[in-house]
Amino acid sequence: MRMSNLYLPTLKETPAEAEVASHQLMLRAGMMRTLTAGVYTYLPLGWRVIRKVEDIVRKAMDESGAQELLMPIIHTADLWKESGRWEEFGPLMIKFQDRKGRDYCLGPTHEEVVTALVRNEIRSYKDLPLNLYQIQTKVRDEIRPRFGVMRGREFIMKDAYSFDVDYEGLDKSYRIMYDAYMKAFTGCGLDVRAVEADTGAMGGSESHEFMVLADAGEDRIAFCNSCSYAANVEKALAGEKKIRQDEEPLPVEEVHTPGQKTIEEVSEFLMVDPAKTIKALALLADGEPLLVLIAGDDQLNEVKLANYLAAKEVTAIEDEDFEKYFQSSPGFIGPVGLEGVRILADLRVKDMVNAVTGANKIDYHLKNVNPGRDFTADEYLDLRIVKNGDLCPKCSGKLEIKSGIEVGHIFKLGTKYSESMGATYLDENGKEQFIVMGCYGIGISRLVAAAIEQNNDDKGIIWPKAIAPYQVIILALGNDEETIRVSEELYSELTARGVETLLDDRKERPGVKFNDADLIGIPLRITVGARSLQNNQIEARVRRSGEEIQVKLDDAIEGIIEILERIE
RNA sequence: CGGAGCGUGGCGCAGUUUGGUAGCGCACCUGUUUUGGGAACAGGGGGUCGAAGGUUCAAAUCCUUUCGCUCCGACCA
Fold first, then answer.
1. Distant-in-sequence, close-in-space partners of A175: CB < 8 Å, separation ≥ 6
2. Do A21-236+401-452 and A470-565 agree at the fold level?
3. Which nt sits closest to A34, CA to C1'?
4. Strand A472-476 relative to strand A460-461: parallel, antiparallel, unpaired?
5. Less Cβ around it within 10 Å: N or C end of chain A?
6. A243 secondary structure, DSSP code
7. For the segment A206-236, what is each residue's pLDDT rounded down to a tens digit?
8. CATH number for the segment(s) A253-381
9. A545 SS3 class
10. Strand partners, A537
11. Residue A132 pLDDT > 90, yes or no?
């Protein structure tokens, strides 16, 4: 492609709307433009990268035995009502009506549609296993779209659905997808880690997320420093740490703590370590009041709690509703003497000795509270968010927390959708059975953003070769005859050899060309200009390493291809 | 939805406190000279100051309402 003809509006300045590197660079490098929050147009350069990623993913899927199809974006409401997710997904879906007043939504995901398809076609165990996938635009009215294409309201996703006769088959299908995903991500030149994950709104049993480690990531992942354990902190279990307490339990003491409500305030006021305080959280689990106790220096993991309670919604009790359930006010509640409310406590609370907690009396706390002696929790379980340095649940190592971008997620769904939507087959005995399903997603557009997060410097993007929009960019510096002749020749020969090449033939000054080439991140830059043509040479420069190589003009094409082959 | 901030040519911003009829840099167009890391000079085009209503002789500026965007939380590929 000649850059004089390419629609590539690069920006010298960073648009104010963009905060993270990938968002800024996608705008600056002329890859995309904003229509409204979380909705973007891909310009030619950006779309080329998207298509590169799609092709790599498509190849990995096809090789795994999955088959590509294309499902509609418009979904009928009755399908979603069948699965029970019309209400569950609620405002996340863009809903609308047609001229007859019938309800629809734009597909945020396709379990319903694919299950409706398959239940009509699959009759026999002989038709299974089956894996169907598509690459398509998904629409989700995210509460807070952000970071450009990282969390858009409209995004490109590869979604696959597996159908098996039993759980053993699902395990196999799941493993095949797991491997295909690693292959696809590696093929894109990304450093991706698979981590254990919560199943969330998808339902089902086992689940893994594929994370690109990057500071801009919205997810926190716990890695063990000595074994292979890795999990999203939503899911990560806390290793049980027996705290040896040498202290003798002391008698409970009521202390006046006027206006001291938060753990920080109380621990500072009483001069005790926050780890020796008990945080009491007043919550409503599907309308049921609940007191949750965790150590003052821990945070409640709401996912763990909701999963344990099998609750749809866990929320904090609003200040104005507080009196309905408790005698005191927020900031002064505690488990001692509390009646009529279920108490759940984190395992760490169980071992605490002489702790501080609310006295259930405004402006008072209790010192020297001892679990078991002064109050009884209905249950002790793992409820906290793991922290840096926590024990690994699988071995004796320690956990380290890192940020990551979720580029893929795979789920063992089981029979959640086949049961609610009646997708069955006949087994060898002629008996009707529910199809066992799995679902598997890759955020194609997010993956592009993640790749940029992982590969950039102060000059711009540094594309991994596999997903670079072009492999080589030729800069023609100056408009003397020789420069033009040589760069044109190189351009047409490289193109003929199948090397995707950009020719910067614009009437721009050298500095502009150098900077644009760096900004759009083409892996290999070739500079043609009078300076080195004098010595019958052209210059090659590797974007990532900065390495500069003089290439003899006589054998330039072979030289360029050779360099290109050893670039990652 | 809760908290914070911002809307002024395509992009980045000043002007708003103290009302006086819109400005700077980049980009764009024309010409000349330039040409190895975002050129110089000269000339030029483009903005109902997010929108609506109000106060005033006069509103980008003050008041009310509203829309949009960004950031922090719950959601997720």
1. none
2. no
3. B69
4. unpaired
5. C
6. P
7. 899 999 998 888 899 999 999 999 999 888 8
8. 3.90.960.10
9. coil
10. A552
11. yes
AA identity, residue A526? I
Distance A19 CA to B62 C1' (A): 33
User: Are A41 and A544 contacting, i.e. CB atoms less than 8 angstroms apart?
Assistant: no
Percent of chain A at pLDDT exceeding 90: 68
Q: What is the pLDDT of residues A262-318, one digit of tens each?
A: 888 888 888 888 888 998 888 887 778 888 898 888 888 888 888 888 777 777 777
Which nucleotides of strand B are protein-proximal, with an atom < 7 A from a CB? 1-2, 11-13, 25-27, 34-39, 68-77
Closest nt to residue A219, judged CA to C1': B76
d(CA A211, CA A478): 45
pLDDT for position A424: 97
- The pairing of beta strand A32-36 with beta strand A278-285: unpaired
Residue A411 CA, nucleotide B38 C1', distance (Å): 48
User: What pLDDT is attached to residue A508?
Assistant: 93
Quickly give A301 CA vs B2 C1' distance in Å: 20
Give, in Å, how far the C1' of B35 lies from the CA of A463: 29
Contact A403, A214 (CB under 8 A): yes
A559 CA to B37 C1' distance (Å): 25
Mean per-residue pLDDT over chain A, rounded: 91
Q: Cis link prior to A274 (omega < 30° from 0)? A: no
Distance from residue A14 (CA) to nucleotide B14 (C1'), in Å?
18
In the three-class reduction of DSSP (H, G, I as helix; E, B as strand; rest coil), residue A504 is classed as: strand
The rounded distance, in Å, linking the Cα atoms of A355 and A255 is 13
Whether the complex's predicted ipTM surpasses the cut of 0.90: yes
Name the residue with the least CA to C1' distance from nucleotide B77.
Answer: A443
Residue keyed to tokens 């890192």: A402
Backbone angles phi, psi at A540, to 5 degrees: -115, 145
Instruction: Give the nucleotide nearest to A28 (CA→C1').
Output: B11
Whole-number distance in Å between A192 CA and B38 C1': 35
Task: Please report the DSSP string for A262-280 in residue order.
Answer: SHHHHHHHTT--GGGBEEE
Tokens representing A89 are 């997904």
CA nearest to nucleotide B68 C1': residue: A36
Give strand letter and number of the nucleotide nearest A512 (CA to C1'). B38
Stretch A147-169: mean pLDDT, rounded? Answer: 96
* Residues 6+ away with beta carbon under 8 Å from A71: A107, A110, A113, A114, A117, A134, A136
d(CA A34, C1' B9) / Å: 18
Query: Domain ranges in chain A?
Result: 21-236+401-452, 253-381, 470-565
Residue A477 CA distance to nucleotide B40 C1' (Å): 20
Rounded CA separation A202/A510 (Å): 53
Return the closest nucleotide (C1') to the Cα of A443: B77
- The architecture that CATH gives domain A470-565 is 3-Layer(aba) Sandwich (3.40)
Single-letter amino acid code for the residue at A370: N
Which nucleotide has its C1' atom closest to residue A411's CA?
A: B77
Measured CA to C1', the nucleotide nearest A17 is B70
The domain covering A21-236+401-452 belongs, at the CATH homologous superfamily level, to Bira Bifunctional Protein; Domain 2 (3.30.930.10)
Quick one: what percent of chain A has pLDDT higher than 70? 98
- The residue lying closest to nucleotide B73, measuring its CA against C1', is A144
